[in-house]
Amino acid sequence: MKMTTERVFNKKLTRLNFKFGNINWEKATIKQYELEKELGVWRIFLNGYAKNGFVVFDEETISREKIMEVLHELEPVIVEEKELTVSELIESSYSWNNIFGKMES
Q1: CB 12 within 8 A of CB 83
Q2: Which residue, 23, 26, 40, 71, could crosslink 76 as a Cys pair with Cβ 3.0–4.6 Å?
Q3: Strand runs labelled E in 31-88
Q4: Closest listed residue to residue 55, CA positions, set 22, 98, 71, 90
Q5: What does the alpha-carbon distance between residue 58 and residue 80 come to, in Å, rounded to a whole number?
Q6: Residue 45 β-bridge partners
């Protein structure tokens, strides 16, 4: 059991941060829902007001091309790309990390 858990926590994911040229809250909501249904998407947030967002996904399950195809109408530009593990994704999601990060700055 430990071997399987360790393998999942160390699985590599890709995070793409975007700026969008053609987005509003309604388009953002629709596209976010479309991608949330995809098996390989771990996390997504599209902000129709700030015209930015991100997608965290498993490139072994869903291709980058598929992500870009779904977002095409929003005129996405990748502004940052990062590789992270499932463990790092989970840890970054803890609310206390956000609080401690603000206290240290």
Answers
A1: yes
A2: 71
A3: 41-47, 52-57, 76-85
A4: 71
A5: 16
A6: 54
Residue 58's Cβ-count burial label (10 Å; 0-12, 13-18, 19+) is middle
pLDDT in tens, 33-56: 999 999 999 999 999 999 999 999
- Give the mean model confidence (pLDDT) for residues 61-70: 97
Sole residue written with tokens 């790092």: 88
Half-sphere exposure of 66 (CA within 13 A, CB side): 15
Strand 76-85 and strand 41-47: the pairing is: unpaired
Query: pLDDT > 70: what percent of the chain?
Result: 87
- Which residue in this structure is represented by tokens 């596209």? 31
**What average pLDDT does the segment 20-44 reach?**
97
Ramachandran assignment for 74, one of left (phi > 0), alpha (psi -120 to 50 degrees), beta (any other)? alpha
